[in-house]
Design goal:
GO terms for molecular function: DNA binding. This protein is α/β, with parallel strands linked by helices. It is built from twelve helices and five strands. The protein folds into two domains: 12-152, Rossmann fold (3-Layer(aba) Sandwich); 170-233, Arc Repressor Mutant, subunit A, CATH 1.10.10.10. Strands 2-1-3-4-5 form a five-stranded parallel sheet, with helices on both faces. It is globular.
Length: 237
C-alpha cells in the first residue's frame, strides 16, 4: 500500500495549497507556481472554513496561507490560526505565511503556530517560488535577523512573569540530561551534523533525539525549540 503522506521524490511535484481571501492574489500565486516545473497547485480556498475542509482532502506538502483573511472570525491573524489547526491535524504539512504587513506580533504568532516561513506579498515572483521550494525541502525561511526579532519579542515583550516562571522547571524536567545538552546546541543554531560532531554521536541519533525533544516540549518546529532554549538561557543568566 502506498503512503500518500510520504515526501515527494525528485520525479514528483511539490504539492501546494493556497489560502487567500483576495481572488486576484490567489489566482496570481496559482499562475506563478503552476508555471514552474516541479510544482503543482492541488487546491485553494478563500477563507478559513474552506481551507480546513479542503487541505486534508488534497494532502499538499506546502500550504501558502494569507495571514489576514478579511472579515473571517479569526480576525487579523485568522490565517495563523488555520496554520495552527492544520499543523495539529497534519504534522507533516509545511506552512508558508504570506502577508501585506511587516508585523512582529504576527511573525511571532506564526512561528509559535508552527509556520516554516513568513514572507511579504511584496516579494517578487522568483523569490516566492524559491521560498516554496525552500520550505518544501525542510529548511526554514526565517533568516537570523528574523529569528533575532522573535527572540527579542520573547525577552522584551509584554511582561507576565507570574505564569511564565513555573514553566521553567517543568519544561526542563521533561528532558534527559543529554536532551538538555542538545537543546542548548539547537539554541546556538547548530545543525544536526554539527551537534553530532560536538557530542560524538551519529547524525541519525541526533535527529531521533531532536524529534523526542520536540515531542516532549509540545512544539512542532526546531525554531520553536531554539526559542525555548534561548528563553531558558536568558532566565538562568
Amino acid at each position: 500500500m502506498s503512503d500518500t503522506s510520504a515526501p515527494s521524490t525528485a520525479s514528483e511535484p511539490i504539492r501546494v495549497f493556497i489560502l487567500d481571501d483576495h481572488e486576484v492574489v490567489r489566482r496570481g500565486v496559482r499562475d506563478l507556481l503552476e508555471a514552474e516545473e516541479g510544482i503543482a497547485v492541488v487546491g485553494e480556498a478563500s477563507d478559513a472554513r474552506q481551507a480546513l475542509a479542503r487541505v486534508p482532502a488534497t494532502r499538499p506538502q506546502v500550504a501558502v496561507l494569507d495571514v489576514r483573511l478579511g472579515d473571517d472570525a479569526g480576525g487579523d491573524h485568522a490565517g495563523i490560526e488555520v496554520c495552527r489547526e492544520l499543523r495539529a491535524r497534519m504534522p507533516e504539512l509545511v506552512c508558508l505565511m504570506l502577508t501585506s504587513f511587516d508585523d512582529d506580533e504576527a511573525l511571532f504568532d506564526a512561528i509559535m503556530a508552527g509556520a516554516s516561513g513568513y514572507v511579504l506579498k511584496q516579494i517578487n515572483g522568483a523569490d516566492l517560488v524559491s521560498a516554496v521550494r525552500t520550505v518544501a525541502s525542510g529548511t526554514s525561511m526565517l533568516d537570523p535577523r528574523t529569528t533575532a526579532r522573535v527572540m527579542a519579542r520573547l525577552r522584551g515583550g509584554p511582561a507576565d512573569p507570574q505564569p511564565a516562571e513555573p514553566e521553567q522547571p517543568s519544561v526542563l524536567d521533561r528532558l534527559s540530561p543529554r536532551e538538555r545538552e542538545i537543546l542548548e546546541l539547537i539554541g546556538e543554531g547548530l545543525t544536526n551534523r554539527e551537534i553530532a560532531e560536538r557530542l560524538y554521536l551519529a547524525e541519525k541519533t541526533v535527529k531521533n533525539r531532536i524529534s523526542a525533544i520536540l515531542s516532549k516540549l509540545g512544539v512542532g518546529r526546531r525554531i520553536q525549540a531554539a526559542m525555548i532554549a534561548g528563553r531558558l538561557r536568558e532566565r538562568s543568566s
